[in-house]
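Bumping my old thread because nobody answered last time. Still need a sequence for this structure:
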């Protein structure tokens, strides 16, 4: 039952048109639906933005590394004192690892996070004159930085839509909405990049994150109160 309905959303019957007209390809439906979903979410969350608190690209990089397996609320509790003590890449690069580790302890996986933050900032000092690089390939060379972190930094620190940030909310909602069948974040990102206009890539992620928190939770989606219900195969199953 569920599979049949999902399939219907992924491959709808093209509407009948007059004699001689070319029916739209079934593959046209997904981008149209994705754009409509984004339009509605933009109406619902007009001021949605990155929830992490930061005042420079380095601080955003550090906050994003800390946000892995941790809530933004928790990260924002930790970063004010962290950034007071280590305001820039030079300070993080020269930090005492044990002290840094203790300061980020409450974000979980703190030993790895502290090690990566210090090593990333050391590389930023030696290779990029203390500035966070604004290219995907350079960011991916930094310890602790994968595509998710790089996408967040590029979008919010530099205004560059290099990819789609796929966190746990984006992954869950994109699947429930029938926009991908993939489970690997890299493959989900590729699917979403083909569906959405590039200027909207980060908007998509931010608004899905808001919607995941507000309505489409991990344990139980509130489909009865969701503005996307008529566009969502999960609500119809
Ligand atoms: S209709 Fe339900 S499953 Fe679909 S996006 Fe809304 S809350 Fe999530």
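Sorry it took so long. Here it is:
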């Amino acid at each position: 039952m569920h599979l049949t309905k999902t399939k219907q959303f992924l491959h709808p019957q093209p509407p009948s048109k007059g004699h001689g007209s070319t029916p739209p390809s079934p593959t046209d439906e997904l981008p149209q639906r994705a754009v409509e979903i984004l339009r509605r979410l933009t109406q619902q969350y007009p001021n949605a933005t990155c929830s992490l608190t930061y005042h420079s690209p380095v601080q955003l990089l550090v906050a994003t590394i800390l946000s892995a397996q941790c809530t933004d609320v928790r990260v924002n509790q930790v970063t004010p004192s962290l950034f007071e003590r280590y305001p820039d890449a030079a300070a993080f690069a020269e930090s005492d690892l044990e002290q840094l580790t203790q300061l980020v302890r409450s974000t979980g996986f703190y030993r790895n996070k502290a090690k990566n933050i210090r090593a990333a900032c050391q590389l930023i000092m030696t290779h990029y004159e203390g500035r966070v690089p604004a290219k995907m390939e350079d960011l991916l060379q930094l310890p602790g930085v994968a595509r998710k972190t790089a996408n967040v930094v590029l979008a919010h620190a530099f205004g560059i839509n290099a990819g789609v940030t796929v966190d746990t909310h984006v992954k869950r909602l994109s699947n429930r909405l029938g926009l991908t069948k993939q489970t690997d974040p890299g493959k989900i990102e590729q699917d979403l990049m083909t569906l959405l206009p590039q200027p909207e890539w980060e908007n998509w992620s931010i608004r899905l994150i808001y919607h995941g928190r507000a309505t489409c939770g991990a344990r139980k989606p509130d489909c009865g109160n969701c503005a996307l219900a008529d566009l969502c195969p999960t609500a119809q199953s």
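The chain has 13 helices and no strands. Let me know if any region looks off to you.
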